[in-house]
Amino acid sequence: MRWFSALAMAVFPMGVPAGANVLATCGPSTGQAYYFDSKPGWYPDKISIGEFIFTMDDKNHPNLIFRDARGKMIDAASDGAQLTFTRVAAPEFSILLLYPQTGVTESYNLIVSGKKRKLLWTSSKVHAGGIITKVGAYTADCD
């Protein structure tokens, strides 16, 4: 997987944390989201500029570097997220991400489907007052 590190440096100019092993890189996501606003319901949702890079450090701790909706690259662990592997069956894995300060939770499941790697992920967004405003389910293609 060493060549993934070189690829990650090209795709994610901020770089991969020193000593990190790149597990997968994934592109834009499409899916459905349930919004709890004035018109509650399920709506098509996509993250057309979305990118993910999943890494593991030398102590087997997962991390995620992602491009947010504004196009900004974010290192989830450095941003305050807690990440935990819930399943590792190489080349597949599952990661639970939690931002304790906001209550945002996401689950990431990288699977092999045929000869392709797919990311199946969910997101529960919480806004001011601890109110859940959006729950989504998405897929993305990975390296």
Brief description of this entry?
With 143 residues, the chain is mainly beta. It has one helix at 2-11, and strands at 21-35, 41-47, 52-56, 62-67, 73-75, 82-89, 92-99, 104-113, 116-127, 131-142. It has one domain (2-142): Lipocalin.
Give a description of the structure.
It contains one helix and ten strands. The protein is mostly beta strands. It has a single domain, classed as Beta Barrel (Lipocalin). Strands 1, 2, 3, 4, 5, 6, 7, 8, 9 and 10 form a ten-stranded antiparallel sheet that branches. The longest helix has 10 residues. The N and C termini lie close together (11 Å). The N terminus is likely disordered.
Q: Specify the structural class.
A: mainly beta
Beta-strand share of residues: over 45%
Oligomer: single chain
Bin the helical content: under 10%
**Terminus-to-terminus distance:** 11 Å
- CATH topology value: Lipocalin
Main pleated sheet: 10 strands, antiparallel
Poorly predicted regions are 1-13
Number of helices: 1
Rounded mean pLDDT is 87
Spell out the helices and strands N to C: HEEEEEEEEEE
* Tertiary shape: globular
Domain module count: 1
According to DSSP, the number of beta strands is 10
CATH class term: Mainly Beta
The whole-angstrom Rg is 15 Å
In the CATH classification, which architecture applies?
Beta Barrel
